[in-house]
């Protein structure tokens, strides 16, 4: 072994210490997973070398035969994994092995619960697979040299997983990384060729480069042990290039875990080969769980890009729109050049064609999941529904298709679960109903009990209840579905079309004429607080409501803009009153204009509260209400 220099002892980042504690206390229920994680990392290192060597062939250092080797020593009780990939410099070793993957550390810590079973689900979402070595090892040595650096700049990293690690410089003739696991007492089963072969076949058969293990050919008695021979134990062919009929579900699932750094099986996948004008293979997955950075639209995302089976880019974001950023997978094209760059990806018409086809494929996959496995789709919607709602604004061509995948709460279902599709809604629509009615609000309790729904309950008309913060913005882009237009029941002058009889319409006109005097008095009393006062056709039980002008921002959108510090255009609500309500009849008969004004403002403020709005002058509301209560109690 070469003499080590520049030796120093460093402490792990706090997050790593906590993670190592979980690992060492058997966080994984299946210990053999450590080999899958280390092989996946080695595979990534080889992919990175292939890509960098396109521009700098000298990085191959005359050795283009790329592979991973797994060996063991029963006497020393060790397992060794070696790759001739890109390797690491001293700084990279400290950065990669001393901290949890650059991003997400705060989220990782925040989500740790102390419950090992629950915490185990977090592993893999932060690129922490290397530390799984400590499940079976009480000491880990890493020897590495980055391709292109001189042999004297090799590095040795060593740790017992107890809060600190040592780093030293040493000579390393070959580029790449060698990891030596010193197995714990009781883990001797892994220092065995048959056991290691089975693990490789089980978890890493899909890896698209040779994984070699020593040939076990014992020497005859009295003969010298033959020179070490190696044999490939995996298929070493890219899974996505193989025919679908030859691939088992378990292989698809293991491949997903490899590329997605996930520990759960995906909800669905789609494997496709395109031939003709364009030629490419794609393998797309829908994860079962949302990553922590799902709502950070600028976070890295995208598919793994290969060109003619050569790895090019880890997160190629040009192949799917942003609202499908949760999709994982691989695309392998024969039509792109090997030296493809991000700039070319953004401009190439071939990419646009592939993006269009891959987007349609994902939407088809989700449609199929919704139709054939509704419970699985429910799980998908819970995790990714709000992101999918970004679709109609971003993808005009697929607006109708995306709308069909959306799920909403409605007055038809109790409990507020978002389980109603637009197709379900239209299938239950009343005869003559040519609109899809909806109401937005801050919470399910608020919209479910909104006075705006009173006439709909009376007539048995279903209304969609939208409470996600994105919903009002979504509906500004979603104008119609299946030829039926959307109508916000809190906006403008409600027109139920054929759902109102001619008698109803005539009666409404007569009452409006009869109450013209009350309308004028209310306008004078409420003054600048309202844009209009009118008789309501929406109410059956409440005395008054506030409606929004056709072109005005809704309350939900106003609150979002105000919270983000943006200037909100001035708008005033429409005050609608229920002429048959006892309070309105009492108001109509009030002789004192002062009492009439106080009473009008109380009704206005109550209507604002029922709509989920805050009062502009709460003290004035309390003063008027107290004054009224005193008068009533005298």
Description:
The chain contains 22 helices and 22 strands. The termini are far apart. The strands form four sheets. Strands 1-6-5-4-7-3-2-8-9 form a nine-stranded mixed β-sheet, covered by helices on one side. Strands 10-11-14-12-13 form a five-stranded mixed β-sheet, with helices on both faces. Strands 15-17-16-19-18 form a five-stranded mixed β-sheet. The protein is elongated, with a radius of gyration of 33 Å. With 634 residues, the chain is α+β, with helices and mostly antiparallel strands. The chain folds into three domains: 228 residues, Heat Shock Protein 90; 139 residues, Ribosomal Protein S5, domain 2; 120 residues, Up-down Bundle (Four Helix Bundle (Hemerythrin (Met), subunit A)). Helix 9 packs across helix 10 and helix 21 crosses helix 22.
Describe the structure concisely.
The protein is α+β, with helices and mostly antiparallel strands and 634 residues long.
Number of helices: 22
How is the largest sheet built, in terms of strand order? Answer: 1-6-5-4-7-3-2-8-9
Give start-end ranges of low-pLDDT stretches: 101-106, 123-127
Global structural class: alpha+beta
What do the pLDDT scores average to? Answer: 85
- Major beta-sheet overview: 9 strands, mixed
| Count of distinct strands | 22
> Rounded to an integer, what's the Rg over CA atoms?
33 Å
Shape: elongated
Q: Helical percent range?
A: 25-40%
Strand content: 15-25%
């Amino acid at each position: 072994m070469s003499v080590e220099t520049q030796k120093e002892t460093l402490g792990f980042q706090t997050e790593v210490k906590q993670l190592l504690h979980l690992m060492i206390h058997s966080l994984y229920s299946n210990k053999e997973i450590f080999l899958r994680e280390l092989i996946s990392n080695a595979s990534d290192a080889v992919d990175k070398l292939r890509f960098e060597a396109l521009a700098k062939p000298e990085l191959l250092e005359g050795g283009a035969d790329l592979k991973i080797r797994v060996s063991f020593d029963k006497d020393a009780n060790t397992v060794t994994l070696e790759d001739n990939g890109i390797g690491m410099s001293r700084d990279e070793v400290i950065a990669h092995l001393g901290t949890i993957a650059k991003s997400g550390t705060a989220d990782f810590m925040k989500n740790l619960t102390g419950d090992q079973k629950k915490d185990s689900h977090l592993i893999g979402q932060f690129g922490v697979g290397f530390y799984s070595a400590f499940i079976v090892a009480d000491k880990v040595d890493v020897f590495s040299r980055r391709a292109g650096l001189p042999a004297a700049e090799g590095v040795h990293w060593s740790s017992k997983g107890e809060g600190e690690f040592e780093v030293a410089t040493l000579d390393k003739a070959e580029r790449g990384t060698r990891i030596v696991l010193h197995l714990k007492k009781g883990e001797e089963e892994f220092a065995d060729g048959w056991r290691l072969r089975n693990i490789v076949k089980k978890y890493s058969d899909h890896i698209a480069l040779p994984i070699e293990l020593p040939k076990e050919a014992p020497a005859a008695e009295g003969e010298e042990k033959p020179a070490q021979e190696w044999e490939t134990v995996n298929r070493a062919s890219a899974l996505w290039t193989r025919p679908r009929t030859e691939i088992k579900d378990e292989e698809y699932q293991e491949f997903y875990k490899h590329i997605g750094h996930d520990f759960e099986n995906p909800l669905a996948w789609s494997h496709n080969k395109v031939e003709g004008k364009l030629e490419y293979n794609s393998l797309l997955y829908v994860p079962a769980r949302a990553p922590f950075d799902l709502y950070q639209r600028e976070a890295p995302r995208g598919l793994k890009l290969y060109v003619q089976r050569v790895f090019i880019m880890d997160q190629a974001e040009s192949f799917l729109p942003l609202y499908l950023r949760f999709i994982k997978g691989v695309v392998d094209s024969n039509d792109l050049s090997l030296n493809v760059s991000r700039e070319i990806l953004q401009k190439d018409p071939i990419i646009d064609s592939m993006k269009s086809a891959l987007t349609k494929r994902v939407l088809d996959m989700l449609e199929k999941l919704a139709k054939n496995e509704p419970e699985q789709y429910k799980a998908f919607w819970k995790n990714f529904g709000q992101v999918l709602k970004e679709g109609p604004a971003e993808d005009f061509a697929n607006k109708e298709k995306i709308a069909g995948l959306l799920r909403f709460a409605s007055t038809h279902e109790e409990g507020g679960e978002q389980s109603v599709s637009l197709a379900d809604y239209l299938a239950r629509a009343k005869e003559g109903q040519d609109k899809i009615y909806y109401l937005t609000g801050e919470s399910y309790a608020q919209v479910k009990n909104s006075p705006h729904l009173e006439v709909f309950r009376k007539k048995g008309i279903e209304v969609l209840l939208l409470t996600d913060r994105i919903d009002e913005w979504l509906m500004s882009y979603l104008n119609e579905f299946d030829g039926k237009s959307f109508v916000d029941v809190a906006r403008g002058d409600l027109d139920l079309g054929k759902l109102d009889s001619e008698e109803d319409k005539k009666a409404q006109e007569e009452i409006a004429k009869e109450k013209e005097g009350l309308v004028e008095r209310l306008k004078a009393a409420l003054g600048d607080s309202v844009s209009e006062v009118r008789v309501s056709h929406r109410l059956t039980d409440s005395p008054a409501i506030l409606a929004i002008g056709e072109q005005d921002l809704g309350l939900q959108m106003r609150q979002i803009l105000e919270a983000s510090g943006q200037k909100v255009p001035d708008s005033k609500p429409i005050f609608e009153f229920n002429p048959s309500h006892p309070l309105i009849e009492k108001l109509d008969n009030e002789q004192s204009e002062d009492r009439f004004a106080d009473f009008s403002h109380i009704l206005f403020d109550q209507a604002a509260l029922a709509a989920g709005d805050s009062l502009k002058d709460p003290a004035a509301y309390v003063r008027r209400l107290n004054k009224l209560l005193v008068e009533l109690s005298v």
